[in-house]
Please model this.
Amino acid sequence: MINNKKDDVDTTNALSLRAEEANSDKIEIRNKVNLMLSDPDSFNKQFVLKPSVTIAITGELNAPARKLFAILYAHAFDNIAVPKHEIALPALMKALNDTIPNYERLREHLIELVETSVQWNILGKDSRRWGAAGLLASVEIDEETDLVQFAIAEQLQHPESMMPYAKLDIGLQNRLNSINSLTLYELLTDYYSLRLGKGETPWIPIPLFQRLLGTNYSDWMNIKRRLIYEPLERLKDLDFTIKVELKRRGRKVVAVKFTMKRKSAVVKPKILPRSVKEAWESLNSIERNRIQMEALKRTPINPNEEEMNKAISEIIQERYL
Model:
C-alpha cells in the first residue's frame, strides 16, 4: 500500500511537471508573438527581393496568393536557408493590408501555395535554372498561439544560386487587385535596371505571354485590352515610363516586348508657391541651375537680364504654378 501511494505521488508530480513545462512553452511562444507584433520590421517590410525565377512563372496562382507569397518570402529572406519560418497570424494579416479579408480565405491561399505546381523561369532570364513545384513546401497554423509556420520550397532556399533578384514594393503590390497588372508589374520591375534607369523584356511570344498571366484569350482585341493596356493604365505611377512594341507576322501579332525608361525627375516644392519669386526661392541650387540652362536654350545668343528673367519665369510657371 505504501509503495502504491508513493507511485501515485510520483505520477502526479511527473504529470504536474509536464503541465508546467507545456504551459511554460506556451508562454514563451506567446511572448514571441507579442514581440513580433511590437516590432513591425519583423513582419512588415516595405520591399521584397524576389528571385527572377519566381516572377516569370506560369499563371496558375491568383493575385492574393501571389501577394501572400511575396510577403512570406520577404519575411523569410534574411534566414532563407532555415527549414521553417514563423510569423504571427495577426501580423501576417496586417502586412496583407486587407488583400485577404479573413483567416478562412488566408488558409485557402496558403493551401494554394503548397498544392499548386508552377513552372518558374519560363522566360529563361536565369539560363541556369528551370523548375516546377509548389512555392511553399509546407504550412501549419497553431490555433492556440496564432503562429503560422511555413517552409519555402527547397529549390528556393539557396540565395546564392537564385540571383538575379527584383526589388518589389509590397505596398504597391497590395494596391494592385488585378492579377494581370500585378504580374506585369513584377515582370517589368524584374527587367528594369535601377542603376541604368532603363530596361527591356525579351520578345515574348503571345501564347507564352498568356501563360504568364494565366489566360487563354483567342482574339487579339481581348489580349491587347485586358493583358496589356488595362494593366499598364494601373501602372502609370511607376518610376519609369513603359513602351509596348509588337512583332507581327503578316497582319497577326505574334510577340510583345516592353521597354522601360526612368521618368525625368522634376523637383517640386513641398508647398505650392503663390508666385514665381516664391517658387524660385523654394528650389535648391541644382534645380535653379537646370532652369537657367533651360532658359538659355529659349533665349537668343547673349541674352540680356530681362530676356533671361522672362524665360526663367515661363519655365517656373510651366512646372510649378
